[in-house]
Amino acid sequence: MKPLNPRFIFLLSLTVVSSSFGFYLPGLAPVSFCEQNSKGDIQLFVNRLDSVESVLPYEYDAFDFCKDTDENRPSENLGQVLFGERIETSPYKQNDDIRWASRWDYILVSMPHSNIQWFSIMNSLVIVLFLSGMVAMIMLRTLHKDIARYNQMDQEEAQEESGWKQVHGDVFRPPRMGMLLSVFLGQGTQVFIMTFITLFLACLGFLSPANRGALMTCAVVLWVLLGTSAGYVSARLYKTFGGENWKTNVLLTAFLCPGIVFVDFFLMNLILWVEGSSAAVPFGTLVAILALWFGISVPLTFVGAFFGFKKPGIEPPVQTNQIPRQIPQQSFFTKPVPGIIMGGILPFGCIFIQLFFILNSIWSHQMYYMFGFLFLVFIILVITCSEATVLLCYFHLCAEDYHWWWRSFLTSGFTAVYLFVYAVHYFFSKLQIIGAASTILYFGYTLIMVLIFFIFTGTMGFFSCFWFVNKIYSVLKVD
Fold first, then answer.
1. What is the average pLDDT across 384-400?
2. Which end of the chain has the lower number of beta carbons within 10 A, N or C?
3. Which helix (H) or strand (E) holds 246?
4. pLDDT number for residue 130
């Protein structure tokens, strides 16, 4: 194996020794030095050793060189520990009267990615405008004319009608595996609110890229505190589906998806422990995460579920028939699987450029800082998932296929499958990773990202269709 090379941060630190220009290591607050208030030697900090051929970072002094005899670690936040971004002292110091200030913005401005980001935004906006035009045409022209004509017909003529109007007695029939769907929707709501608030705070500058770990710390804390929303949404929808096993619903909401993520993360952490990597999360931190989960998130989920079950289920605008209507033979494009596969293409087209920069920041040791672009792409993604799913839902209802509950979730959720395929392509085409441990770590962490993205996008598609279906059937005059 080739010897590991120090990160460019340390090279910049060495530059401080030989010149009068200094950059502070992200994660540490800048300190000003002046003659009137001199603080003595300037302590330089180092991060870690890593390589383009491995995702296993190591402590800076793991190989017994440049070891600092007087180690004094600065304080670290939860996000730094989870990401393995620990900061150590180095034996190098600089005694100078040069004022030391933050020059992080200079590094950020020098990165030539803004043109590509604007291209990404314009590409996403074109997709959104196209979908918005399609939805507007359906809502304002086709649906309006259909509803007006249907409401003017007598009962016998209405029975001879075909299309989405004929399945009004079955469209709100509870879905199969309603408990699992409600659990996914509760967790998806939690992830959506967490992501929105985190990116919004990052746009305002509260979560600067110079503060390593702040983004992850904010996301973890928000996820813990938003257990109430997950429990409430899951319980309310499960009651709407006619479910009665409320205890099982609450337990699954609190433990299913977080449990899958934690088990995956723990297994990846075991590999890091075995390899002696500095990215391994200490046992005490794992205990602290479990304490946050079981001590705060789970009780809050129970509280949310309590209020959710106290509320009545959401009443459908039309009555459901006792005998299910037979679904006619479907064409290839109106069958569930082709529709689900097509549904994820446009949302993925909105994010794939942004996804490249995100993967670079995670695996190629680059700094991601354009949170304004990311927040805008996030909003575009939500809109695109909603509109694409509503369009496909309308086409399926016109084909008299009323099984829209799960299909609406899976249609936009299938975007996560394209994300996984892109991650596989990125691994083989952009990275130079070798070794079984690094490969397992890459795909293990990618699966966590894919699962969270699947739940999030699926939830956006479901609630859009839920609103759409309730809206169009609430204006029908049905005896």
1. 88
2. C
3. helix 246-275
4. 76
* pLDDT reading at 155 higher than 60: no
User: Collapsing DSSP states into helix, strand and coil, what is residue 94?
Assistant: strand
As a dihedral over the C-alpha atoms of residue 354, residue 360, residue 361, residue 364, rounded to 10 degrees, the angle is 180
- Final residue in a domain of this structure, among 79, 104, 129: 104
If asked whether residues 167 and 99 sit together in one domain, one would say no
DSSP letter at 165? G
Eight-state DSSP code of residue 54:
E
Model confidence pLDDT, tens digit, residues 179-191:
999 999 999 999 9
Q: Which residues pair with 88 in a beta bridge?
A: 46
In a domain, 73, yes or no: yes
Q: Are residues 339 and 277 in the same domain?
A: yes
Among candidate residues 342, 377, 301, the one with its CA nearest the CA of residue 120: 377
Neighbours of 133 (CB within 10 A): 11
The CA distances from residue 79 to 44, 84, 183, 232, 263, in Å, are 22, 8, 27, 28, 18
Whether 160 contacts 462, CB under 8 Å? no
In the predicted model, is pLDDT for residue 3 greater than 70?
no
Q: Which residues lie below 8 Å from residue 123, measured CB to CB, with a gap of 6+?
A: 349, 350, 353
Q: Which two tokens stand for residue 421?
A: 């395929």
Q: What is the mean pLDDT of residues 294-316?
A: 92
Q: Which residue has the tokens 């993520």?
A: 261
pLDDT, residue 211, reads 65
Decide if pLDDT at 301 tops 70. Answer: yes
Domain with 54, as residue range(s), is 5-104
Average pLDDT (346-366) is 83
